[in-house]
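ARCHIVE RECORD
Type: protein–small molecule complex
Small molecule: nicotinamide-adenine-dinucleotide
Source of inputs: curated submission
Record status: active
Notes field left blank by submitter.
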Amino acid sequence: MIPQSRASYSDIVGTLRLPSLAFIDGGPVAAVGGEVIETVNPATGQVLATVAHCQAGDVDRAVACARRAFRGGVWSRVAPEQRKAVLLRLAALIRANSTELAVLESLDSGKPIRDCLKEIAVEVPDTFQWYAELIDKSFGKVAPTGEQALAMIVREPIGVVAAVLPWNFPLLMAAWKLAPALASGCSVIVKPAEQTSLSVLRLAELAAEAGVPAGVLNVVPGLGETTGRAIGCHGDIDAVSFTGSTEVGRLFLRYAADSNLKSIGLEMGGKSPFIVLDDAELTPDMIDNAVMAAFWNGGQNCSANMRQIVDRSRQEEFVHLVAERTRALVIGDPLDPATELGPLISDEHRHRVRGYVEAGSREGARTVLSADAALAGSSGAFLGPTIFADLTPAMTIAREEIFGPVLGVMPVDGFEQALATANDTDYGLHATVYTRDLDRAMVMARRLACGTVAVNGFTEGDIKTPFGGYRRSGSLARDKGSEAMAQYLQTKTIWLSIGQVI
Ligand code: NAD
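STRUCTURE (tokenized, with ligand):
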């Protein structure tokens, strides 16, 4: 039963146990030398907990345990049905503990409890279940050889994998990587973002309870420059699956080149367009989609559709409706079930986003809505939404990823200009198109240079569909769908010569 009031969430906060240690070789451990980092509640600015800060020595230990488990075959070589049963148990345990996990994540990240619950009670366990069910339905191939040989093409787990995570969807990003990595038989080391380690540490405990053997899943919290770098440069990690900024993704390619040439899968930033063609119907549902595309999770979303590219003939009508809906957004305490917009992840990040808002005004964008005064008296990192109109493609806010609650409307003249403007970016993660004409929608969808195109609705798809970016938004790697397995499996040919002895 999901609690419905702020008071019930306060009761849960009172009973929460906040994990503070790393999770290595099946149990909690302190970092070598006892180093810790503080994790802050962004809604209050108060320190929530201290968490182990893993150093290179801790990463070495986690990798050694993961390698031992992988070589020993306790997970990598067990029957597929056995791995499936354990991951299904983990999905059930996440569902059973989802309210506690959601409160933990809301406190740690500032994300509204309603969003935490949607992700953690539904999407996270569904992800583990989906990959669990894939395990005993994945077949290899037999090549056409003739009778003199049997050539088998088999897929094997790549080995020890590290998942390096961002702070904006802590448990969901962990699930997107962990579920396919564990399903494939790999051993995993997870590095959560330093701002949001708590729910991932709790997940490791649940995984052990579900039956994931010691050493197969390890969590090493810590800073990027220490823990993250130690992972990137490690000589015995076979693959890294990274989600975060393009800047840090680039570092992981360098780390790999300078160490053991580990495989690097990258999911990175975006500057995604929301395209409104001249015939689009501006229904309340469509306007809701436009607002959520930009402001969901406070705009701290890699696929945030901040660049709203609208046919000039519809700009004023669109801007009016979007501003009206935005004014009705409920901003405030993340543990209040009514809240739609919580604080940003930190005061430092809020400062950065405000810099972009100032750049927008300075460079000539028209301010339609500025709600920066929202919760002005609060000590949390709150920042109300801003809407700009009359954006031009050269403006800083039209080019750089803001990762905050800023929506910019860019007027264009016709289909071709809308398409060219949408593609005029270094990124290529996501796009939304609104039109009643499905021919134009399909032409647009095929010609947009990005990994996901949503037509007549803002969505990133579901667990069955792959997610990833073109250009500086990603490598060829994909999260979600059966395509995600490619990050964690490698291909082997076994050629059996026949008839040599007859
Ligand atoms: P970030 O790049 O700062 O951090 C991501 C991870 O890398 C963290 O765990 C961090 O500790 C680690 N890291 C940071 N510096 C490092 C270094 N020098 N060496 C090794 N590791 C280091 O990103 P963030 O601020 O946590 O997340 C926001 C970014 O993530 C945005 O750019 C967003 O677009 C992107 N993102 C992308 C997707 C996607 O699927 N494409 C999803 C969510 C977020």
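CURATOR ANNOTATION: The CA atoms of residues 333 and 342 lie 6 Å apart.
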